[in-house]
Design brief:
alpha/beta, Rossmann fold, Helix Hairpins, 6-stranded parallel sheet, binds adenosine-5'-triphosphate
């Protein structure tokens, strides 16, 4: 799965000065922000756009994917999926460290500066709207230096919920239970810090406890089923909450924010059809909007 691509220290390169206009005023540099609920295709859109507008680099804004580990559970992209596009703040923070909006703002601002310093296009992508809101609305340096284009990948909630349930089944098949078992500690019920907050971790506690106690097969099977059920439920609730938050942000940012409806992609039954729908409904539109933002 995902290997660390950029260390946090690699972000600490000198931040370039803004270019100055003819009249000596600061000209804002351009940054793309890709938003959307969990499981809508934000990471894919970020990579697709990065390959269309090279050189581009991606700054992760998912508050769980910043942590090292739990690559299956947090659904980090694989090296293959990254297609050589450099990623920042992806799997770089130690699992128990505190990494909240302040740290995100500081590191994301440095990363954006370093990408622009390499003449690259910075693409911030991830589902943590509180991080984005802190960066764009409350972080003075970021607000003054950068002009943002917001792309919102939307999928109708009933369609997204059913896709999220299938995704959980795929994660289980990919080895999520073994991955999370490594974090289990018999007497530690604190799931309020670091990566242990990720959906897909606390839900397994009772199951691992039963395993440790040598519970019988049927008890363990029931607890595993209950955990999977809760993970599906919590993912669906997360998606609904995230859409509500994005709708609120849309009220503030709508002048620079574009909603891309990817629902059709999720309704296709073959990979081939889904790829075509992605191209037609999401990527071609996003490419046009981004082209206008960069060159108009
Ligand atoms: P909140 O203020 O509710 O934390 P937020 O906008 O800061 O919202 P979200 O990305 O919506 O951040 O994450 C909320 C919660 O959803 C996280 O604390 C975590 O439990 C879970 N979560 C978010 N991203 C993931 C992920 N990639 N994998 C697993 N769980 C996640």
């Amino acid at each position: 799965m995902m290997k660390q691509m950029f260390s946090v220290s690699a972000l600490c390169k000198a931040v370039p000065m803004d270019s100055l206009s003819l009249f000596g005023q600061r000209k804002k540099e351009k940054v793309v922000v890709i938003m959307g609920a969990t499981g809508t295709g934000k990471s894919k859109l970020a990579i697709d756009l990065a390959t269309h507008f090279p050189p581009a680099e991606i700054v992760n804004s998912d508050k769980m994917q910043v942590y090292q580990g739990l690559d299956i559970t947090t659904n980090k992209i694989t090296n293959e999926e990254a297609r050589g596009v450099p990623h920042h703040l992806l799997g770089t923070v130690p699992p128990n460290a505190s990494f909240e909006a302040d740290e995100f703002c500081q590191h994301a601002t440095l990363a954006v500066g370093s990408i622009l310093g390499r003449d690259g296009l910075p693409i911030i992508a991830g589902g943590s709207n509180s991080f984005l809101e802190a960066l764009v609305n409350h972080h003075r340096e970021f607000r003054l230096r950068y002009q943002c284009l917001f792309l919102w990948v939307h999928v109708s909630l009933p369609v997204l919920h059913s896709s999220l349930e299938t995704r959980v089944d795929r994660m289980i098949q990919a080895g999520q239970v073994d991955e999370v078992r490594q974090l289990f500690q018999r007497h530690d019920r604190d799931y309020a810090r670091g990566i242990r907050r990720a959906i897909g971790v606390p839900e397994f506690h009772a199951f691992f406890e039963a395993e440790a106690d040598g519970a019988d097969d049927s008890t363990r099977r029931n607890l595993l089923e209950a955990a999977i059920h809760d993970i599906k439920d919590n993912n669906c609730k997360l998606a609904s909450r995230q859409v509500e938050k994005i709708q609120r942000l849309y009220g503030m940012w709508k002048r620079n924010m574009h909603r891309l409806d990817a629902t059709e992609v999720f309704l296709k039954s073959t990979r081939h059809e889904a790829d075509h729908a992605w191209q037609d409904h999401v990527l071609s539109r996003a490419t046009r909007i981004l082209h206008n933002f960069l060159y108009d």
